[in-house]
TrEMBL record:
The keyword Cell membrane does not apply. The keyword Transferase applies. Residues 15-188 form the Glycosyltransferase subfamily 4-like N-terminal domain. Residues 198-327 form the Glycosyl transferase family domain. GO terms for biological process: carbohydrate derivative biosynthetic process; lipid biosynthetic process; liposaccharide metabolic process. GO terms for molecular function: D-inositol-3-phosphate glycosyltransferase activity. Pfam families: Glyco_transf_4 (PF13439), Glycos_transf_1 (PF00534). This is D-inositol 3-phosphate glycosyltransferase. It comes from the Bacteria. Its EC number is 2.4.1.250.
Length: 371
């Protein structure tokens, strides 16, 4: 079976790039069309990447920002030639699905990390920029993303969502049904270690950006009088430091994977205060036998099991969320959780499980197309 793949950009290694990496391991001969590529980013699938003039423009701009190039991505993808493939597998964030127009003669599978959440949710755009010019530009880009999705979604043969929450968004925005295949997590690296004893702190890992709500975790920890270790960086870092002035909050900045694993192993629990499409970090924590305290919405509902691998906090507004997390942190007793059971649950999100499920989706899609 000749597979071709599409990904929107390669400017960093994050969750969606790990998805593409596992697809590459399943189909190592598949070319991967990516319109915007930073060649300094080391990806295991770099040898298969096919790019073009948008990457040249990105290089000419000194790799400062890919955002001005995003409006050109749909047109670039529509001009791809997939005539030598039996199926196209598309990794979609906002514009990747435009490639379906180039694959009109073959079946397509779209792995949807989410419909462009920032495009469909105006509140997310408000949180992204403070300038009027920035808001105007982001509103225009959002309109293009929505048009691109609505134009392409009806033509996709099979749609795969990375969580139940994303499947619901796909149904709401695109009026398409989607099956769920959770993203791959490296549960072979993130493991428990009895030699690393539990310590008296909660862990907040990941980027410090508005939609992940690190401010909620910091405010809750200060209110509860507990220690919070923050492992990550982002544009909300200074805001979080100001909120933490009267509390016991330690900011580590970016840490290596090995350091993060050690932090997971020693934490009382991981804190997840924002709504994620799926959320890789809670599964990494659980793979280390560590329970998760999560906001009870979005992707966390797919990964965290109440009372078995963690607990949920609910709140309809900021104050209710902060209060809920503060109460939970103050009363949290990790002895109620079995690290072995938590680890066993996390193993269901392994990289091999992801590859097996995606291979089956693609096989069935191609067979139906040939029938």
């Amino acid at each position: 079976m000749r597979v071709t793949m599409v990904h929107e950009r390669l400017t960093e290694i994050a969750g969606s790039e790990n998805v593409v990496a596992e697809m590459f391991r399943e189909w190592p001969d598949a070319p991967i069309s990516i319109p915007i590529v930073d060649p300094r980013v080391q990806a295991c699938f770099a040898s298969q990447v096919k790019t073009g003039r948008l990457s040249a423009l990105y290089r000419a701009a000194g790799y400062r920002s890919y955002a001005p190039l995003l409006p050109l991505v749909p047109a670039w993808l529509r001009r791809r030639d997939f005539s030598n493939a039996d199926v196209a597998v598309i990794s979609h964030h906002a514009f990747g699905i435009a490639a379906v127009h180039a694959a009109h003669s073959i079946p397509t599978v779209a792995y949807v990390h989410s419909p462009a959440r920032w495009a469909w949710d105006k509140k997310m755009r408000i949180d992204e920029t403070d300038s009027r010019a920035g808001r105007i530009a982001l509103d225009a880009l959002s309109a293009l993303a929505i048009r691109t999705e609505l134009s392409a979604a009806p033509a996709v043969t099979s749609i795969v969502a990375n969580s139940g929450a994303v499947a619901q968004r796909i149904k709401r925005h695109w009026d398409r049904d989607a099956q769920v295949v959770h993203p791959p997590v490296d549960v072979d690296f993130y493991t428990p270690d009895a030699a690393e004893a539990r310590e008296d702190y909660f862990l907040l890992p990941g980027r410090l950006v508005a939609y992940k709500r690190p401010d909620v975790a910091v405010r809750a920890a200060v209110r509860a009088g507990v220690k919070l270790v923050v492992a990550g960086h982002g544009r909300d870092a200074d805001k979080c430091r100001r909120l933490a002035e009267n509390g016991h909050v330690e900011f580590l900045g970016r840490v290596s994977d090995t350091e993060l694993r050690s932090l997971y192993r020693r934490a009382k629990a991981m804190v997840m205060p924002g709504e994620e499409d799926f959320g890789i970090t809670p599964v990494e924590a659980m793979a280390c036998g560590t329970p998760v305290i999560a906001l009870g919405v979005g992707g966390a509902l797919d990964s965290v099991v109440e009372g078995l691998t963690g607990t949920f906090v609910h709140g309809s507004d900021d104050e209710a969320m902060v209060s809920g997390f503060a109460d939970t942190l103050a009363a949290f007793d990790g002895s109620h959780f079995d690290p072995a059971q938590i680890r066993c649950h996390a193993e269901g999100f392994s990289r091999s499980a992801f590859r097996r499920k995606m291979a089956e989706v693609v096989r069935v899609t191609v067979e139906r197309g040939a029938a």
